[in-house]
Amino acid sequence: MEPVTSTSPEHDAIQRIIGVSPWAEQVRRSIELVAVHQSSVLILGPSGTGKELIARAIHSCSMRSKRPFIPVDCAVTTGTLFASHMFGHVKGSFTGATSSTLGCFRAADSGTIFLDEIGEMELELQAKLLRVLQQRVVVPVGSHAELPVDVRVLAATNRDLASEVQAGRFREDLFYRLNVVAIRTIPLRERIEDVPVLATRYLAELSARHGMPMCALSPESTEILQQYSWPGNVRELENVLERAVMFSSGDQIDPDALSGLMVGGAPGEPPALGSTAQMAMAATRGIVSATPLPGVYRVEPKLPSGAATAPGQTAGAGDADAAASDAWPTLADVERMHLEKTLAATMQNKSLAAKLLGIDRSVLRRKLERYGLEEADGAPGSAE
Length: 384
Prior knowledge:
384 residues, Rossmann fold, Helicase, Ruva Protein, domain 3, 12% strand, disordered N terminus
């Protein structure tokens, strides 16, 4: 695809869909085609593959680009709060309603509403949403007046909605209402040629936005990243690169700075880096430690000599290796490992992870923040 020389916002938005793969080129063309129409668009694909980025690009290229883009996380908009959050309420309609609110649909009037994780929405709430999409009116909580809204609806999910319909977990009529045009994302492992391009762009953004040193990948590091299977997709790539910049001492990222990658080691398990030889190569880069996932190991960089210790403590020679091999895990260590295992098993779907763990999503978010596993939501260019 020829580079776009225009600096218009719409072209900038499309060019944020980075890549040289056939998929990236097809998605950019699809955005240009569907943006000029008013039809609903359903964006399907695994977590971390850039679904919200595609939605924002569609909005930026549409006639509604000057109007609001309102993202809604359907996974956390549940129960009695749904109607108020989505359709607004009038003053005094319930305890604590000290003023009237617009709600997401009226806030997005003349613009675009993005219903993220639509597959997580409860059936009862799906019926309320369907009526709004059909009638194009909302009724605020505490009012009987139907207020017209003019919004374009974009939705995204990492679930197979056709299967969800068959299983009775998603309304068929809502599925067809949303699925006018479908755009599918694919895992990063299926467009591995895009990894160097994505890495270069994200490293530049780290330097420009966060004041981190400007680094480039060494050829060896690029080869490792292209051989990796990326279970967390683009979001995982961004995390790995951010850690790599912190571990790098110069302006080049070498293999020993690539931490947190998962490699397969057990017989019969598909190795993330491709072969037993690559498992051995990973061991030369750092400490290879077992994870709760069978046959999967985590590679972290070796601690440099004289690594920082807790205040008042001294570290003798070999202490780092001893700590890596002999230290008994604390409860915090076990909890962190279980959180990482759950996030990996759910492909970073925090709503599903919270359900598997039997805790509220807000509790999960606090735990992820405590252990440094939480990413900044809504950062420009970050994947969905």
